[in-house]
Design brief:
Rossmann fold, single chain
Length: 384
């Protein structure tokens, strides 16, 4: 008769195996989100939003809100001693001239840009056209203005992008034909300010990480450059001082309402296909939770004080046009509606309800010709 000897070690191993088989799997990350994301969102009370803040005088609230956003964006890249603009090349077009210029956007970066100047006697109102993200980094400013004397590859890239996102139009050229000075500049990581080793989507993470380890952030750096671009526009003799609007699609829209919110030099803004709330963006099914494309629009810590529409409301009572598409898969419609309602409450509180225009149109994530025409009509109403 054979006897089986079970040692204490064997018994413990057996019990542990059975326990592992019966215990539920543990995790705290789900699709890139913390498993406790709903609880985390519930802690965001936005104490500096208009109506939540104890400050009841609007201009004082506005100053405090701007100061907090700028604090979250700090430190700023140092200013150059001067913008020192230089014209590199020029082309006459129908009703305006297109210039390739270079100027000091900050003390570290001398950047190329396109400047379009209408024919005739100025000064003219101006628009800072802010390009999109699109996970497409080989061009930036060329998304907004038809390039000239560039390689065949760049020209083909720009043409293809104009059809993919702008209905075959270059929005900057369209605005110049309407009589606006138009400036467009590459954001850091795009076009002439891109990566020496070539385009790489995942390199956004490294850039943001490395900037943060040295005290800055990718999204903040872009926002500071946009503010400096407005300052530069206001120095140009062809621009009617103080008559400046900002306009953009997608990431460009985020940049537009951020700039309008933070700069006293901006008179009006147009933001196409970028407005929502954290509640609807931070879900398991939204594109925002994938992370990569969000680095360029994240201002560290600001959600502890203000949500997206609260920051945009710092632009009140400026004329602002927001348009989003009902078929836009990046921005849930209910989040758009909630954000619009929050902003409208602020403009109404200042007796400026007619100066805020919000539109939900039957469109995907796209800035088509009809939307462009509405944006131009809006700007014409503001400036003429």
């Amino acid at each position: 008769m054979r006897r089986t000897i079970i040692t204490l070690g064997m018994l413990l191993c057996f019990c542990c195996t059975r326990a592992q088989e019966s215990a539920p799997m543990q995790y705290e990350v789900l699709k890139g989100m913390p498993a406790f994301y709903e609880e985390l969102k519930a802690t965001l009370t936005y104490p500096m939003a208009w109506g939540n803040s104890p400050t009841r005088r609007f201009r004082k609230w506005q100053r405090e809100g701007r100061a907090k956003v700028l604090e979250c964006m700090s430190p700023a890249p140092p200013k150059a001693d001067s913008f020192a603009p230089e014209v590199l090349d020029e082309e006459q077009r129908e009703g305006y001239k297109a210039q390739k210029i270079v100027f000091n956007i900050n003390a570290w970066s001398r950047v190329q840009a396109y400047l379009l100047i209408p024919d005739g006697e100025g000064p003219f109102p101006a628009v800072l056209a802010l390009h999109d993200h699109g996970a497409h980094f080989s061009i930036g400013k060329e998304k907004m203005v038809r390039p000239f004397r560039v390689t065949d590859e760049v020209m083909a890239d720009a043409e293809k992008w104009s059809h993919a996102c702008y209905d075959g139009e270059f929005v900057g050229d369209r605005l110049a034909r309407e009589g606006y000075v138009l400036l467009t500049v590459d954001a850091l990581f795009w076009g002439d300010r891109g990566r020496r080793e070539g385009v790489d989507y995942d390199a956004q993470q490294a850039l943001n990480s490395n900037l943060q380890q040295m005290g800055m952030a990718f999204g903040s750096f872009i926002a500071w450059d946009d503010l400096r671009s407005v300052e530069f526009l206001n120095t140009l003799p062809c621009v009617e001082r103080g008559e400046i609007a900002v306009l953009g699609h997608s990431m460009g829209a985020h940049r537009a309402w951020m700039t309008a919110a933070l700069s006293e030099e901006v008179k009006a803004g147009v933001a196409i296909c970028w407005m929502n709330t954290t509640e609807y963006l931070m879900t398991l099914t939204n594109n925002q939770n994938k992370g990569g494309s969000a680095y360029s629009m994240i201002i560290p810590g600001v959600r502890n004080y203000l949500d997206y529409p609260h920051v945009a409301s710092l632009a009140c009572p400026k004329p602002m046009l927001f348009m989003n598409g009902t078929k836009d898969k990046l921005f849930p419609v209910q989040g758009v509606k909630d954000a619009y309602a929050e902003m409208r409450r602020v403009w109404q509180s200042q007796g400026a309800d007619e100066l805020l225009q919000t539109r939900l149109v039957e469109s995907p994530h796209y800035f088509g010709r009809a939307m462009q025409q509405e944006a131009i009509a809006f700007l014409n109403e503001v400036f003429r």
